[in-house]
Amino acid sequence: MSTKPDPAERYLDLATTRFSELGFHGVSLALVAKDAGVTKQAVLHYFRSKERLYAEVLNRLAVRLLAEIDATAAPTPAQRLIAYFSAYATGAVANPEDARLVVRALLDSDAQARSWPLKPYLDTLTDLALQTPRWQSASREEALAGLYQLIGAIQYFAISAPTLSGMYGKTSFDEVQGALTDDFRKLIQGFAIP
User: Fold this and answer.
1) Whole-prediction pTM value?
2) Contact criterion met (CB below 8 Å) for 36 and 42
3) Which residues bind DNA (predicted)?
4) Does 32 reside within a domain?
5) Which of these, 84, 100, 119, 184, could form a disulfide with 20 (CB 3.0-4.6 Å)?
């Protein structure tokens, strides 16, 4: 017996793509409904508002990012961070949707937001960083600032890759990507190990 796909999951997948492309303010429920081939009321049935749909998209992203950290096994916290960020950088370049979504979420949120779905992700990474030789005597804020720079560098390259490839051509872009991969490796190592 085949099971029918959950409409809510399908709407979330479509909304994730749209929010990563256009940000919160660029997406309407009508657009998500059009992508799904349903009425706006069908999407509202599951999420009640655009804000709730967006919150669920971000919650799902946060759960996925936290699961990736949890799945990263290594003997020490420093090696775990290195392994996590190496995989994160590779994944972000190969599939930049999550990187774009994180950047959009950070840009679209304001100080009055009632929910910060990505905070547990950043807190978990900060806790892990504070266990490494490089950050164990640093303040939580210093470790978070370092993480933010590292995440930002990876995300910036991932989301700008199509533009760079278009500007300089595939051959030059591939060389830039190779050089950046080496630079990211050094940056990630330097973040975790003094």
Assistant:
1) 0.85
2) yes
3) 28-47
4) no
5) 100
Task: List the pLDDT tens digit at each of the 194 positions of the chain.
Answer: 556 779 999 999 999 999 999 999 999 999 999 999 999 999 999 999 999 999 999 999 999 999 999 999 999 999 999 999 999 998 998 889 999 998 888 887 766 556 788 899 999 999 999 999 999 999 999 999 999 999 999 999 999 988 989 999 999 988 988 888 888 888 888 888 87
| Number of structural domains in the chain | 1
- Does 109 reside within a domain? yes
CB atoms under 10 Å from CB of 141, counted, come to: 9
Rounded to whole angstroms, the Cα distance separating 184 from 40 reads 43
Distance from chain centroid for Cα 158 = 10
Do the Cβ atoms of 176 and 164 come closer than 8 Å?
yes
| Residue 153: domain span | 58-192
Distance, CA of 177 to CA of 11 (rounded, Å): 33
**Half-sphere exposure at residue 51, Cβ-oriented, CA atoms within 13 angstroms:** 5
CA distance 136 to 17: 38
Amino acid identity, residue 177? Q
Distance linking the first and last C-alpha atoms of the chain: 56
Instruction: Establish if 5 belongs to a structural domain.
Output: no
Is residue 24 assigned to a domain? no
Cβ neighbors of 109 (< 8 A, separation 6 or more) are 116
Q: Do 169 and 131 touch, CB atoms closer than 8 A?
A: no
